[in-house]
Amino acid sequence: MTRFIFITGGVTSSLGKGLTAAALGALLQARGFKVRLRKLDPYLNVDPGTMSPYQHGEVYVTDDGAETDLDLGHYERFTGVPSRRGDNVTAGQIYSQVIARERRGDYLGATVQVIPHVTDAIKQFILSEIQDEDFVVCEIGGTVGDIEGLPFLEAIRQLGNEMGPERTLFVHLTLVPYLSSAGELKTKPTQHSVKELQGVGIKPDILVCRSERPIPLEARRKIALFCNVRPSAVIQALDVDTIYAVPRAYHEEGLDDEVCRHFGLERTTPDLSRWDWVTQRIRHPDGEVTIGVVGKYTTLIDCYKSLAEAMTHGGIANNVRVKVNWLDSEIFEDEGTIQHLEDVHGILVPGGFGERGAEGKIAAARFARERRIPYFGICFGMQMAVIEAARNLAGLPGAGSTEFGPCEDPVVGLLTEWTVGNRIERRNIDSDKGGTMRLGAYPCVLAPGSRARTIYGVPEISERHRHRYEVNINYREVLEAVGLRFSGLSPDGELPEIVELEAHPWFIGVQFHPELKSKPFDPHPLFTSFIEAAVTQSRLM
Ligand code: GLN
């Protein structure tokens, strides 16, 4: 029997619903249950793929090629369960589906309405593609009280009613702020938020209260009384030093116990030893390395969520702390600024779009190559490294990417045709922008004797993609002649997936996003190896 846990949030956004869902999933797993995590996003975009990273943060890509919310990254990192397209839905998808059905005539005779047509479509999504999971944890995006969230709340209310408390549970996340002028923690915002939730017919079973300071027992009792929950169901959620300490912290506060109690499940002790191991490694590293990330969205690190985590994982694997200097690539376009990179132990140029800052990234790749500093180029970072090698090693000063307009030597060009299984995908300059990139998992064959082959330890890999442009295979010979080896290719040999500089301690560019698959318990081999190279570099400096 599958049980459904719905997570809503109130008072403010950014309370960490995604992490709460991920940590609860991990705790249930640690008790031996099979879990799946899902996210319902009330905005009208069909997916976050067309939003600016500043609006939305990172776009997390699944193996089956969906562009999804970054919380799915937390879910996957915390539970190891690969997310699928069907684990994230937006109001945009729901409404498109309902309108398409209306046009097809599926509702002939009926007036199509939010209730029941939109809410039915939401319920269908929540219940779809479930096999033998014991728990489905469903996070509702946004904050209670948002207009666009109403159909989602109504849908979960109906499910609660239809399936009953033996199969559904409502967790509400709120904030208990500390008012320094009063010298007190305040419970009123929580009371109001619960009132709002009750106004749409949902009575929360568990309240998770985020707070900067410990919430005294008395305040918890007050919250319980005013919000109509058991005192033991008021869970305090204090800030922790690393996100991987969250499962342990929630367990200590009784969150998973309370869930088991609600469903009448035996309250065994979960095995959290691997979480304790990870937090221990993070808290007590043996040394530190500094990585300079030369990107574009460096003021909002949510844009690089998985990347930041993957670097932490690489640090865990090498038992060092990874300090990241987030650097705006545009600064490297001015004379004399590249020296800022002098004291980093590794340079990473992440994924990105558009011309702004591209020359700064090319300059960073050049600096890394010439100074023999470990360089890791991811997607755009690989493309910029190839342009740099073409210009400065292969003598093609007009080398560029057609993403920025026509150029003399298009070493990076628009991908117009590729194969997915036995189907051919075609695109041109006028294709729609939404959901049309090369997305999701693709196989890549590694060249024998290459560094990539050694790092992965296997001849063929599968990694996730999200890009429109591609390194032009026609330049392979010219570039290999100057030492930039094409060490990973698509199985048909047409698409360059990995390049590496042979005469360099560690210089690798990958067309895919390895950060999406890295986990604290299973750090990605490229990140492990890159951080190891940074450790070596730090000893030389
Ligand atoms: N803008 C580049 C492309 O579309 C790189 C994309 C990325 O880094 N994810 O190909």
Describe the structure.
The chain has 541 residues and is of the alpha/beta class. The chain has two domains: 3-277, P-loop containing nucleotide triphosphate hydrolases (Rossmann fold); 287-540, 3-Layer(aba) Sandwich (Rossmann fold), CATH 3.40.50.880. It is built from 17 helices and 25 strands. The strands form six sheets. Strands 13-12-14-15-25-24-23-20-21 form a nine-stranded mixed β-sheet, with helices on both faces. A seven-stranded parallel β-sheet has the order 5-2-6-1-7-10-11, sandwiched between helices. The longest helix has 16 residues, at 525-540. The radius of gyration is 25 Å and the shape is globular. The mean pLDDT is 94. Bound molecules: glutamine (GLN). Residues 351-353, 379-380, 403, 466-469 line the site of glutamine.
List the topology elements.
Blueprint: E1 3-9, H1 17-30, E2 35-41, H2 53-56, E3 60-61, E4 67-68, H3 71-79, E5 88-90, H4 91-104, H5 114-127, E6 135-140, H6 150-163, E7 168-175, E8 178-179, E9 184-185, H7 188-199, E10 206-211, H8 217-227, E11 234-238, H9 246-252, H10 255-263, H11 273-283, E12 288-295, H12 305-318, E13 321-328, E14 346-349, H13 358-371, E15 375-378, H14 380-392, E16 399-401, E17 409-414, E18 417-420, E19 423-426, E20 438-446, H15 451-456, E21 460-467, E22 469-471, H16 476-481, E23 484-489, E24 496-501, E25 507-510, H17 525-540
Parallel strand pairs: 1-6, 1-7, 2-5, 2-6, 7-10, 10-11, 12-13, 12-14, 14-15, 15-25, 16-17
Antiparallel strand pairs: 3-4, 8-9, 17-22, 18-19, 20-21, 20-23, 23-24, 24-25
